[in-house]
Amino acid sequence: MKKSLFLALCLSALLGNTYAQSTAAIKNYPDKQVRMVIPFPPGGATDVIGRIMAQELSKSLNQQVVPDNRSGDSGNIGADMVAKSPADGYTLLLAALTSHAINTGLNKDGIKYNLEKDFTPVGVVGVVPLVFVVNPTVPVNNMKEFIAYAKANPGKLTFASSGAGAPQRLAMEMFRAQLGLDLLHVPYKGSGPAMTDLVGGQVLSMSETVPAALPFIQTGKLRALAVTTAQRISQLPDVPTVTEATGMPNFDVVSMFGILAPAGTPKPIIDKLNADIKVILQRPDVQERMLGAGVYVNYLTPADSAKRIHREVTMWEKVIKDSNIKPD
Predict the structure, then answer these.
(1) What architecture does CATH give domain 34-127+254-323?
(2) Residue 249: strand, helix, or coil
(3) pLDDT 10s digits, 22-44
């Protein structure tokens, strides 16, 4: 009996000490530098957003947040690294959430992490809109004419994409499937080659990110038909949304970005980071820098971010299945 009581007291003291250490660690967070893993190479939207957020969080946390580019395998290498990191708030992922959600449905056997189970959302921070564009030789001026032309020419109207799992491809597949259009897909290895051939007339249409398409739209080399967002955007104020242009309800497709932490990261740390992000994203200079990269600020709480991620995973799994899309 005395031995049992002694063991119980020791266990209680151990648990109490562990809890006290855990509470102190959370209270003092962060007391060393934080790593922000960016799972894509320098220069793209993910990298720009990651570096802006790392710089601003360094100020608000009073501790250095270091950007760390770990690219490869469509963002999966960096994501897997963070998923397997300690859940202590010192390793974060600047996630291209739409791309990761698409990977979940497209490459289930190839990825080594579960987007919804292995991460805790800190918060969505921004979105990059897409725009439907055509080469000016296509005899259409708006989406209704595009639909009519596609139906009159089944299998002849081509559309380019930057890859099998790219949001640009999936947005067009969703649009095509909902309207029953017979379009011919022409895949490319990246947006650059696809845009070159689209401008040159080798392919005729595409869904592309606004930053990539905007210069060609402004110079008349491409014709914008509709943006894929729920509301019109400031960079193309005269271009209607897909819903406005076609009457299709609730068409809202963007490339979404956010910050994730390993699953099990203490809620007080998640809440602290999210509160700082909310303040950061309200600053006009941050919004201006983000928009310079074509990114529209879009703050969400951790709970709302989790719901949005689940929506993305579910939506893209259906598109991939219905369109029988396979990995490259």
Answers:
(1) 3-Layer(aba) Sandwich (3.40)
(2) coil
(3) 455 578 899 999 999 999 888 88
